């Protein structure tokens, strides 16, 4: 029987419940694997019934603890993630048997070295060019290494058929998430962007991805039934906003809520936790390791050199979601997204002829007033 952390009673009721939920899964025999990024091929863990959990790095509370080891002028996501690990304040890190990292940015790369002193951590070496044949071969070898690591640490065997079954189930789950995102294409949308994020972030943890997919589809049908009865609370004249940029996490409340408070509605999230990672499925007609390597290397993150696929995706999404304005949210010290924002601005304004706003922020509330001023002015201009 696993134990709860010594500081359990200090947490909010929601966080206590998260600890209990993940504890129950672990007590029922499931291994827990903590991950940080959309580049992690979760099908490898799915193949052996392990639960992949996204580790908490979305609030400012643990950042002071992290700054005892990390520089202050570092991305808040990295500091928050590491601070939670130090404080035992993330239920998912606390109960994780293993941690899987990836070399997407310099901050996370070095943070994983410190995490490895707390828990067993495996770091995948992610190539930075998804068009190179050599990069694809390197990424395949990294997938093979991940399979070897999981087999050794969890004392399991992973066959090609195990991976194929996991790919099939995870594709169905991705389809359900993508379909749920596509509610934002309706005019007006049936739910707000903030509500959509709450649903997607609260999808829960289950070893049965097919059951999860069915649950999401049922919930979508329920929303559409109410929508068809005219029960949508979103006015049709609200300006339709696409969010792009860094994983927003702890900036969700002050960005999304402010947009929707001042007359906009967020209809699409072109972010790591949004539609970007579920837009394409894993192929089921080739060797499973080849298919996983192809899918995950092709995710269009700003850590990639010549990130053309991001602009192709933005091109489709701006049209498909009838977008009135694009807001790029970049976390402070997130250098890859900050540099790429120049190209995104030019593309959105010149090629798509859609207004664009760049916001740089962190997880604190210090800049809330300034953000409200800039967001409200942008929405008025649309």
TrEMBL record:
Keyword Lyase part of the UniProt annotation: yes
NCBIfam families named in the record: double_cubane
Cofactor: [4Fe-4S] cluster
Family label: Belongs to the FldB/FldC dehydratase alpha/beta subunit family.
Enzyme Commission (EC) number: 4.2.1.-
Coiled coil: none
GO molecular function ontology, one term from the record: hydro-lyase activity
A Pfam family assignment: HGD-D
Protein name per its UniProtKB record: R-phenyllactate dehydratase beta subunit
Superkingdom of origin: Bacteria
Key words, A-Z: Lyase
């Amino acid at each position: 029987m696993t134990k709860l952390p010594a500081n359990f009673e200090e947490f909010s009721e929601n966080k206590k419940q998260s600890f209990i939920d993940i504890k129950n899964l672990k007590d029922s025999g499931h291994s827990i694997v903590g991950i940080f990024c959309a580049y992690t091929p979760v099908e490898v863990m799915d193949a052996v019934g392990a639960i992949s959990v996204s580790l908490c790095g979305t609030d400012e509370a643990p950042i002071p603890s992290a700054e005892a080891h990390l520089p202050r002028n570092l991305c808040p996501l990295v500091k928050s993630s590491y601070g939670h690990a130090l404080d035992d304040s993330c239920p998912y890190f606390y109960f994780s048997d293993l941690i899987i990292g990836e070399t997407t940015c310099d901050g996370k790369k070095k943070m994983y070295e410190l995490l490895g002193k707390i828990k067993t951590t495996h770091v995948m070496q992610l190539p930075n060019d998804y068009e190179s044949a050599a990069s694809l071969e390197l990424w395949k070898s990294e997938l093979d290494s991940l399979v070897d690591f999981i087999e050794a640490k969890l004392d399991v065997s992973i066959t090609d058929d195990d991976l194929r079954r996991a790919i099939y189930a995870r594709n169905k789950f991705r389809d359900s998430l993508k379909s749920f995102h596509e509610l934002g294409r309706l005019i007006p949308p049936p739910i707000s962007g903030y509500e959509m994020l709450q649903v997607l972030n609260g999808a829960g943890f289950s070893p049965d991805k097919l059951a999860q997919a069915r649950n999401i589809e049922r919930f979508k049908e329920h929303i559409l039934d109410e929508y068809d009865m005219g029960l949508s609370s979103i006015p049709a004249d609200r300006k339709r906003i696409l969010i792009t940029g860094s994983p927003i996490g702890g900036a969700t409340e002050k960005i999304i809520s402010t947009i929707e408070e001042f007359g906009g509605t967020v209809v699409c999230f072109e972010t790591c936790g949004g539609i970007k990672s579920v837009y394409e499925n894993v192929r089921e007609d080739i060797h499973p390791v080849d298919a996983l390597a192809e899918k995950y290397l092709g995710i269009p993150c700003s850590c990639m050199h010549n990130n053309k696929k991001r602009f192709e995706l933005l091109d489709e999404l701006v049209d498909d979601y009838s977008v009135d304005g694009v807001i790029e949210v970049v976390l402070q010290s997130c250098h890859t997204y900050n540099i790429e924002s120049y190209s995104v601005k030019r593309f959105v304004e010149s090629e798509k002829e859609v207004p664009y706003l760049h916001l740089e922020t962190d997880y604190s509330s210090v800049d809330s007033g300034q953000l409200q001023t800039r967001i409200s002015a942008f929405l008025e201009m649309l």
